[in-house]
Amino acid sequence: MIFCPVCKSTDVSQYQCASNGNKCHVCLNCGILFLDRAERDICKKSKGVNMENYGYANAWDETPDRVKNCEHTRKSKEVGRCLTLYSCEICQYEYLVDSSD
Asked: Phi and psi of 80, rounded to 5°?
């Protein structure tokens, strides 16, 4: 049985991401999109293989389509002082944001 990692509801449906065709799940209770354990394992094994790195978002003239069309919850990780790495394992992209002055 699949349940939502946020609200623990079992009212979950399978969903196909419009931006890359990957399958994930959507919680019909809270609306979050997420991967089940098997799909997360597949992403972890392939992470880096198809991961697109967009560098520093601060330098973008325009937001990349892959990022703009992403419908998933992005992960963020502090990787340095005033430096945050944002990523989506489902859409397979990552980028940095420098929040210093």
From this structure: 180, 175
Q: How far apart are CA 31 and CA 48, in angstroms?
A: 28
Nearest Cα residue to 13 out of 22, 5, 3, 43: 3
Residue 83: how many other CB atoms lie within 10 Å: 14
Give the model's confidence band at 17: pLDDT under 50 very low, under 70 low, under 90 confident, else very high: low
Q: Which residue in the block uniquely carries the two structure tokens 């354990």?
A: 37
pLDDT at 40: 59
Tell me if residue 75 falls in helix, strand or coil: strand
Give the closest residue to 31 by CA, choosing from 82, 72, 88: 72
Rg (CA), the chain: 15
* Token couple for 72: 């998933």
